[in-house]
Hints:
The chain is mainly beta. The protein is built from 4 helices and 16 strands.
Amino acid sequence: MFILNNLKTNPNIEWSEKVGPFQICEYKQDRSVDVGMASQEYYASKMNIRKRQVLCEIRKGQGIVLQAGAMQWMLGNVSATTGVKGVGDFFGKMIGGSVTGEAGIKPEYEGEGMIMSEPTYRFLLLVDVSKWGSGIVLEDGMFLACESCLQRKVISRRSLSSAVAGNEGLFNLCLSGQGTAVLESKYPYDELIEVELQNDVLKIDGSMAVAWSADLEFTVERAGKSLLGSAASQEGLVNVFRGTGKVLMAPLAG
Protein backbone atom coordinates (compact mmCIF):
# COMPACT_ATOMS: atom_id res chain seq x y z
CA MET A 1 0.00 0.00 0.00
CA PHE A 2 1.20 3.52 -0.76
CA ILE A 3 0.00 7.11 -0.33
CA LEU A 4 0.97 9.75 -2.87
CA ASN A 5 0.89 13.22 -1.32
CA ASN A 6 1.28 16.70 -2.87
CA LEU A 7 0.85 15.58 -6.47
CA LYS A 8 -2.83 15.69 -7.34
CA THR A 9 -3.27 18.60 -4.88
CA ASN A 10 -0.30 20.67 -6.11
CA PRO A 11 -1.72 24.10 -7.12
CA ASN A 12 1.05 24.49 -9.73
CA ILE A 13 -0.15 21.41 -11.65
CA GLU A 14 -3.16 21.18 -13.95
CA TRP A 15 -4.58 17.70 -14.57
CA SER A 16 -6.41 16.52 -17.67
CA GLU A 17 -9.41 14.22 -17.60
CA LYS A 18 -8.28 10.64 -17.08
CA VAL A 19 -8.61 8.43 -20.17
CA GLY A 20 -7.99 4.71 -19.63
CA PRO A 21 -4.93 4.36 -17.40
CA PHE A 22 -3.47 7.73 -18.45
CA GLN A 23 -3.72 11.26 -17.08
CA ILE A 24 -1.68 14.27 -18.25
CA CYS A 25 -0.23 16.77 -15.80
CA GLU A 26 0.96 20.20 -16.91
CA TYR A 27 3.09 22.50 -14.77
CA LYS A 28 1.85 26.09 -14.87
CA GLN A 29 5.37 27.31 -14.12
CA ASP A 30 8.79 25.72 -13.79
CA ARG A 31 9.74 26.95 -10.32
CA SER A 32 12.99 25.02 -10.20
CA VAL A 33 14.90 27.60 -12.29
CA ASP A 34 17.48 29.98 -10.86
CA VAL A 35 17.15 33.76 -10.67
CA GLY A 36 18.81 34.33 -14.04
CA MET A 37 16.25 32.17 -15.84
CA ALA A 38 13.16 33.35 -13.95
CA SER A 39 12.15 36.00 -16.46
CA GLN A 40 12.55 33.64 -19.43
CA GLU A 41 10.53 30.93 -17.68
CA TYR A 42 7.76 33.42 -16.79
CA TYR A 43 7.20 34.45 -20.40
CA ALA A 44 7.58 30.85 -21.61
CA SER A 45 4.72 29.77 -19.34
CA LYS A 46 2.55 32.58 -20.73
CA MET A 47 3.17 31.15 -24.22
CA ASN A 48 2.06 27.72 -23.00
CA ILE A 49 5.62 26.41 -23.18
CA ARG A 50 5.37 24.20 -20.13
CA LYS A 51 6.65 20.90 -18.83
CA ARG A 52 4.20 18.00 -19.15
CA GLN A 53 4.15 14.42 -17.92
CA VAL A 54 1.82 11.45 -18.14
CA LEU A 55 0.82 9.55 -15.01
CA CYS A 56 0.05 5.90 -15.79
CA GLU A 57 -2.03 3.74 -13.47
CA ILE A 58 -1.12 0.05 -13.65
CA ARG A 59 -3.81 -2.45 -12.67
CA LYS A 60 -3.60 -6.20 -12.41
CA GLY A 61 -4.06 -7.70 -15.86
CA GLN A 62 -3.96 -4.26 -17.54
CA GLY A 63 -0.41 -3.24 -18.39
CA ILE A 64 1.02 -0.37 -20.40
CA VAL A 65 3.80 0.07 -22.96
CA LEU A 66 6.13 3.06 -22.59
CA GLN A 67 8.71 4.44 -24.99
CA ALA A 68 12.20 3.24 -24.02
CA GLY A 69 13.89 5.66 -21.61
CA ALA A 70 10.67 7.58 -20.90
CA MET A 71 10.10 6.34 -17.31
CA GLN A 72 10.91 8.86 -14.53
CA TRP A 73 9.67 6.88 -11.52
CA MET A 74 7.39 3.96 -10.70
CA LEU A 75 5.55 3.17 -7.50
CA GLY A 76 4.08 -0.05 -6.16
CA ASN A 77 4.37 -3.66 -7.26
CA VAL A 78 5.26 -2.89 -10.87
CA SER A 79 7.68 -4.84 -13.02
CA ALA A 80 9.05 -4.18 -16.49
CA THR A 81 9.31 -6.77 -19.25
CA THR A 82 10.56 -6.56 -22.83
CA GLY A 83 7.31 -7.82 -24.33
CA VAL A 84 9.37 -10.09 -26.60
CA LYS A 85 7.66 -13.42 -27.27
CA GLY A 86 10.54 -15.34 -28.82
CA VAL A 87 13.59 -15.02 -31.05
CA GLY A 88 11.54 -14.22 -34.15
CA ASP A 89 9.62 -11.53 -32.30
CA PHE A 90 12.91 -10.06 -30.99
CA PHE A 91 14.40 -9.69 -34.47
CA GLY A 92 11.10 -8.37 -35.80
CA LYS A 93 10.99 -5.64 -33.15
CA MET A 94 14.66 -4.73 -33.69
CA ILE A 95 14.21 -4.45 -37.45
CA GLY A 96 10.99 -2.50 -36.97
CA GLY A 97 12.74 -0.07 -34.66
CA SER A 98 15.64 0.46 -37.05
CA VAL A 99 13.38 1.37 -39.98
CA THR A 100 10.92 3.61 -38.09
CA GLY A 101 13.40 5.54 -35.95
CA GLU A 102 11.54 4.37 -32.82
CA ALA A 103 12.98 2.11 -30.14
CA GLY A 104 12.30 -1.41 -31.39
CA ILE A 105 11.83 -2.97 -27.96
CA LYS A 106 9.57 -0.86 -25.76
CA PRO A 107 9.24 -1.80 -22.07
CA GLU A 108 5.92 -3.26 -20.97
CA TYR A 109 4.95 -2.60 -17.37
CA GLU A 110 2.58 -4.83 -15.42
CA GLY A 111 1.44 -5.34 -11.85
CA GLU A 112 -0.27 -2.80 -9.60
CA GLY A 113 0.98 0.75 -9.09
CA MET A 114 1.85 3.95 -10.92
CA ILE A 115 4.42 5.19 -13.41
CA MET A 116 5.34 8.79 -14.20
CA SER A 117 6.97 9.63 -17.52
CA GLU A 118 9.91 11.96 -18.00
CA PRO A 119 8.88 15.62 -18.43
CA THR A 120 8.66 17.07 -21.93
CA TYR A 121 7.85 20.46 -23.41
CA ARG A 122 5.86 18.79 -26.18
CA PHE A 123 2.09 18.47 -26.00
CA LEU A 124 0.73 15.09 -24.90
CA LEU A 125 -2.35 13.82 -26.73
CA LEU A 126 -4.67 11.09 -25.46
CA VAL A 127 -6.10 9.13 -28.41
CA ASP A 128 -8.81 6.46 -28.47
CA VAL A 129 -7.36 4.08 -31.06
CA SER A 130 -10.71 2.34 -31.67
CA LYS A 131 -12.02 5.53 -33.31
CA TRP A 132 -9.44 5.27 -36.11
CA GLY A 133 -10.87 2.33 -38.03
CA SER A 134 -8.50 -0.60 -38.48
CA GLY A 135 -5.67 1.37 -36.85
CA ILE A 136 -3.85 4.67 -36.50
CA VAL A 137 -0.54 5.28 -38.31
CA LEU A 138 1.92 7.59 -36.55
CA GLU A 139 4.68 9.82 -37.82
CA ASP A 140 8.14 9.11 -36.37
CA GLY A 141 8.61 10.33 -32.80
CA MET A 142 4.89 10.60 -32.00
CA PHE A 143 4.58 7.48 -29.82
CA LEU A 144 5.00 7.82 -26.04
CA ALA A 145 2.77 5.20 -24.41
CA CYS A 146 -0.23 2.92 -24.90
CA GLU A 147 -2.20 0.19 -23.22
CA SER A 148 -0.50 -3.17 -23.70
CA CYS A 149 -3.73 -4.65 -25.12
CA LEU A 150 -3.21 -2.64 -28.31
CA GLN A 151 -1.52 -4.30 -31.26
CA ARG A 152 1.66 -2.62 -32.47
CA LYS A 153 3.16 -3.29 -35.87
CA VAL A 154 5.38 -1.65 -38.46
CA ILE A 155 3.74 -0.97 -41.81
CA SER A 156 5.36 0.15 -45.04
CA ARG A 157 4.17 2.78 -47.45
CA ARG A 158 2.29 1.37 -50.42
CA SER A 159 4.80 2.80 -52.84
CA LEU A 160 8.43 3.86 -52.68
CA SER A 161 7.45 7.18 -54.27
CA SER A 162 5.33 8.10 -51.25
CA ALA A 163 8.42 7.96 -49.06
CA VAL A 164 11.09 9.43 -51.35
CA ALA A 165 9.09 12.09 -53.16
CA GLY A 166 7.03 12.97 -50.09
CA ASN A 167 10.10 13.47 -47.91
CA GLU A 168 8.70 10.83 -45.54
CA GLY A 169 10.01 7.61 -44.01
CA LEU A 170 9.25 4.32 -45.75
CA PHE A 171 7.95 2.67 -42.55
CA ASN A 172 5.62 3.81 -39.76
CA LEU A 173 4.31 2.49 -36.46
CA CYS A 174 0.64 1.45 -36.54
CA LEU A 175 -1.52 0.93 -33.43
CA SER A 176 -4.78 -1.01 -33.59
CA GLY A 177 -7.39 -2.46 -31.26
CA GLN A 178 -9.43 -1.19 -28.31
CA GLY A 179 -7.46 1.09 -26.01
CA THR A 180 -5.79 4.44 -25.42
CA ALA A 181 -2.46 5.77 -26.68
CA VAL A 182 -0.42 8.81 -25.63
CA LEU A 183 1.23 10.78 -28.44
CA GLU A 184 3.85 13.53 -28.31
CA SER A 185 3.12 16.49 -30.55
CA LYS A 186 4.63 19.88 -31.37
CA TYR A 187 1.09 21.27 -31.37
CA PRO A 188 -1.78 21.11 -28.84
CA TYR A 189 -4.75 18.96 -29.84
CA ASP A 190 -7.09 21.93 -30.18
CA GLU A 191 -4.81 23.41 -32.89
CA LEU A 192 -4.53 20.22 -34.91
CA ILE A 193 -6.97 19.86 -37.80
CA GLU A 194 -8.88 16.58 -37.95
CA VAL A 195 -10.11 15.76 -41.45
CA GLU A 196 -12.70 12.99 -41.85
CA LEU A 197 -12.84 11.48 -45.32
CA GLN A 198 -15.78 9.49 -46.66
CA ASN A 199 -14.49 7.94 -49.89
CA ASP A 200 -12.76 11.23 -50.67
CA VAL A 201 -9.29 12.71 -51.17
CA LEU A 202 -7.03 14.99 -49.10
CA LYS A 203 -3.93 16.55 -50.70
CA ILE A 204 -1.30 18.18 -48.49
CA ASP A 205 1.67 20.24 -49.63
CA GLY A 206 4.34 19.21 -47.13
CA SER A 207 4.80 16.88 -44.16
CA MET A 208 1.91 18.21 -42.10
CA ALA A 209 0.03 14.96 -41.44
CA VAL A 210 1.01 13.64 -37.99
CA ALA A 211 -1.35 10.64 -37.87
CA TRP A 212 -3.88 8.97 -40.14
CA SER A 213 -6.19 5.96 -40.39
CA ALA A 214 -4.56 2.76 -41.57
CA ASP A 215 -7.51 2.29 -43.95
CA LEU A 216 -6.40 5.26 -46.07
CA GLU A 217 -4.20 4.88 -49.12
CA PHE A 218 -1.22 7.23 -48.97
CA THR A 219 0.61 8.21 -52.15
CA VAL A 220 2.55 11.14 -53.58
CA GLU A 221 1.20 12.71 -56.76
CA ARG A 222 1.47 15.82 -58.90
CA ALA A 223 -0.72 18.68 -57.72
CA GLY A 224 -2.34 18.90 -61.16
CA LYS A 225 -3.42 16.23 -63.61
CA SER A 226 -0.63 17.26 -65.95
CA LEU A 227 2.82 18.80 -65.71
CA LEU A 228 1.36 22.02 -67.14
CA GLY A 229 -1.37 22.02 -64.48
CA SER A 230 1.18 21.52 -61.70
CA ALA A 231 3.29 24.37 -63.07
CA ALA A 232 0.26 26.67 -63.29
CA SER A 233 -0.67 26.01 -59.67
CA GLN A 234 2.97 26.62 -58.63
CA GLU A 235 2.84 23.36 -56.67
CA GLY A 236 4.94 20.28 -57.35
CA LEU A 237 4.28 16.99 -55.58
CA VAL A 238 1.71 16.67 -52.82
CA ASN A 239 0.94 13.99 -50.23
CA VAL A 240 -2.39 12.36 -51.05
CA PHE A 241 -4.67 10.46 -48.65
CA ARG A 242 -7.48 8.63 -50.40
CA GLY A 243 -10.41 6.58 -49.13
CA THR A 244 -12.42 6.54 -45.90
CA GLY A 245 -10.79 7.46 -42.61
CA LYS A 246 -9.27 10.35 -40.66
CA VAL A 247 -6.14 12.49 -40.92
CA LEU A 248 -4.70 14.54 -38.06
CA MET A 249 -2.97 17.52 -39.63
CA ALA A 250 -0.70 20.21 -38.18
CA PRO A 251 -1.70 23.83 -38.86
CA LEU A 252 1.87 24.74 -39.84
CA ALA A 253 4.76 22.80 -41.31
CA GLY A 254 7.70 22.39 -39.01
